[in-house]
Amino acid sequence: MSAIRHALNTKRADDFAAWYQEVISAADMAEESGVRGCMVIKPWGYGIWERIQRLMDDRIKAAGVQNCYFPIFIPLANFTREAEHVEGFAKEMAVVTHHRLIADGKGGLIPDPAAKLEEPLVVRPTSETIIGDAMARWIQSWRDLPLLTNQWANVVRWEMRTRMFLRTSEFLWQEGHTAHEGRDDARAETLRALEMYRACAEDDLAMPVIAGEKPENERFPGAVETWSIEAMMQDGKALQAGTSHYLGTNFAHAAGIKYQDREGTETLCHTTSWGVSTRLVGGIIMTHGDDDGLRVPPKIAPHQIVILPMLRDKPEDEPLLTYCEEVRAALAALSALGEPVRVLLDKRPGKAAAKRWDWVRKGAPVIIEVGSRDMEGGKLAVLRRDAIWNLETGKSAFTYPQREDFVAGAADLLAEIQQALYTEAAERRDANITRGVTTMDEVAAHFADDVKYPGWLEVKWAKPTGAVLDKVVEQLKALKLTLRNVSRDAEAADGTCIFTGEPAVERVLVARAY
């Protein structure tokens, strides 16, 4: 077996955090903006987000939810109505206090003291309160329910420690907000959104997740129940990849969201909210990336197939480009994974090998190189990004099919790559969830400093609340651990709670997390 020379300087096994940052740079996904905690999302990174957005938006609309848009500025008074909500976000809020600047006499600008706002405006950290005001205006009768809304927007949460895509002061997301007649209908919507997120993560992003309810201490501020999808990254840490909240009547009470029921009685609505963000892009990097860069699942790749003609800046380039254009057109006429194939003919000047590695680092699912000899033989040189190395020779694992044969099998190839990436990630996750740990000493040993990638534990617990739960959280915090969620598919629990010694009622996941 020959040594492989990978495209990145940093290997995952050596420094996972540095590897993550290098992938973002090498794949040309994003860069620092010069504004603290904020990033510039570059075309390839934003193209991946657009694909996620498109597929998610189709799922949202298929459920009868309608898109709206609400202001980015929210009156501070809105947050004070729901005490638990404001407490949960107070430390992260960016606040606008003035509406005009004036010269300071030293060549700079300062807020004009005369332009102080009567009431400060919070830059949107989430929209429950302002959307609640709108719902209170729009809902009068049971005939107006359910009210199903969503918005695609940016939000601001003033993070102290930031990391591109995973935790930034400004990020992009969708937030669904719905109002219902009763608890059962609202909880059904909460779980519908959770299942939508699970399906999108697994079917579109090829990212296996565990869907379940968050413990009380991990609930969204003001929620009655919070549900999440949790994904395991290659370093064994958990990433909360989406959340869905049943809010009961808490926000309806604060905002006055009421309706006249079928008997004519004024009744509070039950509401929900649910969201995913550009954090999913970070999850894709850490789920599918390798030591050569990013690997993008075909469903969310801006370009699924990239064709690279080996141009020489000579007259013979013209027939080669014609040949490549014919291949591009034939592929673009196909449908794969339920949509037209997205194929790019990269005509940029430069050596094909250099451009190949550019697309390898970006993670295009299929890369095709075409030289004059390939053209003369009616062939293509094809490289699968999910399996680019011949492990015996240490060289790129090109195959050389006839042009017509490749076109005929291209749709199946993309589906095969999509499934292969999911299977690889699911097998890695399942192999790194440990069960059977019964004491806190065993928990500490499992997550000891000399254990590089400990993965997750699934342990039995009694679902404690209040001060008892606070004590559990502190125990875990000392080990840099968190409670993730209780899987909807977990086996019933027996025996005793690992934390309290009380009879166990369910199984909860424990992990280090992003």
From TrEMBL:
EC number: 6.1.1.15
Catalytic activity: tRNA(Pro) + L-proline + ATP = L-prolyl-tRNA(Pro) + AMP + diphosphate
InterPro entries: aa-tRNA-synt_IIb, aa-tRNA-synth_II, aa-tRNA-synth_II/BPL/LPL, Anticodon-bd, Anticodon-bd_dom_sf, Pro-tRNA-ligase_IIa_arc-type, Pro-tRNA_ligase_II_C, Pro-tRNA_synth_II
UniProt keyword Metal-binding, yes or no: no
Pfam families listed in its UniProt record: HGTP_anticodon, tRNA-synt_2b
Localization per record: Cytoplasm
One Gene Ontology term, aspect cellular component: cytoplasm
A GO term for molecular function: proline-tRNA ligase activity
Keywords, in A-Z order: Aminoacyl-tRNA synthetase, ATP-binding, Cytoplasm, Ligase, Nucleotide-binding, Protein biosynthesis
GO biological process: prolyl-tRNA aminoacylation
Keyword Glycoprotein: no
Domain Aminoacyl-transfer RNA synthetases class-II family profile: 45-297
PANTHER family the record matches: BIFUNCTIONAL GLUTAMATE_PROLINE--TRNA LIGASE (PTHR43382:SF2), PROLYL-TRNA SYNTHETASE (PTHR43382)
HAMAP family reported for this sequence: Pro_tRNA_synth_type3
Stated role: Catalyzes the attachment of proline to tRNA(Pro) in a two-step reaction: proline is first activated by ATP to form Pro-AMP and then transferred to the acceptor end of tRNA(Pro).
Domain free text: Consists of three domains: the N-terminal catalytic domain, the anticodon-binding domain and the C-terminal extension.
Quaternary organization: Homodimer.
Family: Belongs to the class-II aminoacyl-tRNA synthetase family. ProS type 3 subfamily.
The name this protein goes by in its record: Proline--tRNA ligase
Species the sequence originates in: Aurantiacibacter xanthus
